[in-house]
Amino acid sequence: MRSNLLPVLSLLLGTAFLLAGNGLHGLLLPMRGSAEGFSPTSLGLLGTAWATGFVLGCIFSQRLVRRIGHVRAFSAFSATIAIIALLTGLLVDPVSWILLRVVTGFSLAAAFMIIESWLNERATNETRGLIFSLYMTVTYVAIVAGQMSIAFGDVTQTTFFIIAGILYCLALLPTAVSTASSPAPLKEVKLDLKMIYRNSPVSFVAMLLVGIANGAFGTLAPVFGADVGLTTFTIATMMSITIFSGAVMQLPAGRMSDRMDRRYVLFGLAAIAGLSGLAITIVKPSGLTVLYGLISLYGAMSYTLYSIIVAHANDYADSDQFVTVSGGLLLLYGIGTIIGPLVGGITMSYSPYLLFAVTAVSHLGVAGYALFRTRMRAAIPAEDREHFASIPSARSATPESINLDPRATPEN
Predict the structure, then answer these.
(1) Distances in Å between the alpha carbon of 120 and those of 4, 15, 185, 330, 403?
(2) How many degrees, rounded to 5, is the angle at CA 148 between CA 81 and CA 170?
(3) Could you point out which of 21, 271, 334, 372 has its C-alpha 20 to 30 Å from the C-alpha of 170?
(4) What is the pLDDT of residues 328-364, one digit of tens each?
């Protein structure tokens, strides 16, 4: 056990550096862009570009990794990300940033998949659950740490761009100490939309809409904060609250979905997330207590939906289809995150509060369709349902992280 976990801890440290850099850089760009007067549409396209690159990286990076090897590929991708972080501090221009974000998304997807393949190499039936739990913990903590670091400086300076570059470079170190020199080749990823829809129409529609909502919020909530006059510290806190609330709510919501039709749970969570978005749009809260309360409620409901959607889809799938179904849903989520920032940026041109109208429409769409489908298809009996399990943040998850999930093992 100990001999297997020691190399894993070094790989998790590399993951932490990648995620912290991504959390910092992903929050820094829209905040700096807003300070520079970039249009909401341009800032939304930053999220669309990143998500496009990330999805493409999940699909096509395996060929490059197979050709040059894991170590060289990881070094190349990490160096590319670090260079781009520095370039975005030098080239403060919306068009340059949008183009560079495509490359960042592609490279990050590839880097995450390589680290996750190393983790899979080290995981055994005895340690898989522990490694997966550690991976989820690192995911949430590192993203929040990266985001909160921005509260202690000036986004109009180049300092944070340099720090992001350093964090990405630090992620290179675990490859030097890992003893898993030849992990299994990365698996080809295919998106079979017809299969996903046949398996579970609710999961198909809900995952796309949740991707739209989370893509819009994740990219443009910092812009919303800047436009309504929030401080840098308040914006960073607001973004971290959503992630923390979603992480805390995962287990209670999941246990509830194990005991009843998951579609009713999806309906309830999505409806509350939609209503919280509508409340922010209509009330336009000026006090931080009300804003934090509504944002916390939003995060607790919205950031829990992904895991429950995956569990619901796998209730209807064969036991050996977990990776195929979950990987397809992940890419479908990625398509949603491509659409969301663009739609959100356009609507925010009229009012920053309309960002939450976009999330509200998406979540209420999930709630309405989930409730409609309860009349069209019988629920799976409780004893036949897949047991709920939390999943790492979908914003950084790849098909390789799905292979790490204990539910992906043949015994399950």
Answers:
(1) 11, 14, 11, 18, 7
(2) 35
(3) 334
(4) 888 899 999 999 999 999 999 999 999 999 999 999 9
Question: CB of 266 within 8 A of CB of 210?
Answer: no
Decide if 319 contacts 412 (C-beta within 8 A): yes
Residue 125's Cβ-count burial label (10 Å; 0-12, 13-18, 19+) is exposed
Distance CA 355, CA 34 (A): 15
Asked if 216 contacts 355 with a C-beta cutoff of 8 angstroms, the reply is: yes
How far apart are the C-alpha atoms of 37 and 233, rounded to whole Å?
20
The two three-digit tokens of residue 113, written as one number: 């998949």
Average pLDDT over every residue of 222-229: 94
Whether 356 contacts 277, CB under 8 Å: yes
Residue 395: pLDDT band by 50, 70, 90 thresholds? low
Residue pair 97/86 in contact (Cβ under 8 Å)? The answer is no
Q: Work out the number of other CB atoms within 10 angstroms of the CB of residue 161.
A: 23
Q: Give the pLDDT of residue 412.
A: 43
Structure tokens at 62: 């395996």
Residue positions counted in the chain? 412
The predicted model scores a pTM of 0.89
